[in-house]
Amino acid sequence: VRKWWAMRRGFAPSVVVPKADMALIDGAAVLRIDGRLDAGGVAVFMGQAEHALRVTSRLVADLSQATFLDSTALGALVAVTKKARDAGGDLVLSAPSQPVRRLLALV
Fold this sequence. Notes:
Shape: globular
Structural class: alpha/beta
Number of helices: 4
Low-confidence stretches: 1-6, 12-18
Radius of gyration: 14 Å
Strand content: 25-35%
Largest sheet: 4 strands, mixed
Number of strands: 4
């Protein structure tokens, strides 16, 4: 009922998979996250990140359109960073939105 009420008020339920896509720019894979990234969508993000790591070890997570990250998403970002570093690259967080910036300031 709670998710139905949220949808009626114009909010998407958290189990909706976030829109995520990848672009290759100057040898770095840019992973763009739109909307919420939580336990319901982390598998999609991790799949895209692993695909990107097969192309390059230099990753950028564009968080400018991200509206929410939960602890699962933070764990995924840490795991992707470790994989990128193990491959000789890194993960850079780019342009976090205001809500995401507030969250990152806490951790």
